[in-house]
Amino acid sequence: MKPAAVNREHSKIAIFLHSGEYDRLHQGLSIAAAAVASARPVEIFCFWWALERLAHGRLDEPDFAPAREDIVERFEAKSVPTLRSLLGLLRESEHCAIYACTGSMAIAGLAPELVERSVGQMVGWTTILQLTSGVTDRFYL
Question: What is the pTM of this model?
Fold first, then answer.
């Protein structure tokens, strides 16, 4: 079956990353990677624990809760990309922008210089609402 044609007027994807759980972050970044591979623009917004995990660089080792060593072993055996490698791919793409929520930064006690290494820009809700206005493809993880 042939994939449906993408309507470029409504092709932007917004991904809201809230959870810091490895599997949720991996899913969100994988969605973004698939979109940029199709030349679809993606905006990723990082909040709370997702932002905390990114800022502290906990991106390499899968740590599933509750502990699932079988899944970790499959990740390694199948050479599934890490969060770090997915983020690297997304940062290199001209189709992806990564944002940090300034409110989440303040509540989590994250200094701007720590967050700047992980995201492209720090924004508040007014800007987030403007950037995502009219976007129909939204993912909340």
Answer: 0.86
